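It is worth pausing here to work through a concrete case rather than discussing structure prediction in the abstract. The textbook approach is simple: state the sequence, then state the predicted structure, then interpret. We follow exactly that order.
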Amino acid sequence: MDTAAIERASLVALLRLQQTRWSEVALEIQENGSAKAVLDRTVGHSDTLFPDVDSTTDLINAAAGEVAGWQGDGIGVHAFFDDTYPAQLLGIREVPPVLFSKGDLRVHDRAVAVVGSRKASDEGLRIARAVARTLAGRGVTVVSGLAAGIDTAAHSAALEAGGRTVAVLGTGIRRCYPSANRRLQEHIAEVGLVISQFWPDAQPSRQSFPMRNAVMSGYAVATVVVEAGETSGARIQARLALQHGRPVVLTSQVMQCEWAKTFAENPGVYVVHGTAQLLEAVDDILSYQPTDAGLESFPDFALR
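Step two, the predicted structure:
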């Protein structure tokens, strides 16, 4: 194996260890400059007189076999230190140490997240479709979570407009949730991009969807919340987006909720009434373009 393959396999081996906290792995590797060095220290105890080199080598070889199997199944495997890793995710605290992909992964992707309730109203679905179509027509990638309701409407409208859409999964990339969206997921993988931070066969869990929301927020330059109840995952994403320094656009539908009324007082939140004003807000946000080094600062103001 070349150095890059050894580093990637070392990362997978680290993440497979039960005692490993995924949220700390990327930081530890950055501090040490090498995934293999962290693995050696964690398993092989390389700072002792008799390091267990064979154990570390076995883990790397096993992980390399897993990576080869995933890649043979058409799944991209991207460590956070790889050149292929999406640049915009590197700037968030919840950066996934490894990302699995199917489709056209781009290091730099100008994208806006369109999210909302699974049980969406007809008006919410109309707004989601209109926003997604307009974004697609302007060459902006539409990001969403492949859930029922608003997510499905946004993905479908972007595709119908001939645009690019990215689906961020709350399951492993070999799974489909909800099952009704299997064909949509397959189509997005063919013409857009499907990504997941979870092992390819991982089932959905209570924790996986908020984690998915963090990645959606980090991938996009902004989040549009079309509809979202008091316990909606879109509410979580709105909070995360501001933590990531990304603007949030709230529609009048969302403003019927108490959480949104409070949330709207934050700098960087746009409150819009009607599709036309929503698109004006998105245009304003997109005028602040991401750079190769990361996202530039967005204006700290809210539209009322």
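Step three, interpretation. Residues 46-51, 290-304 have pLDDT under 50 and may be disordered. The domain at 111-286 is CATH 3.40.50.450 (Rossmann fold).
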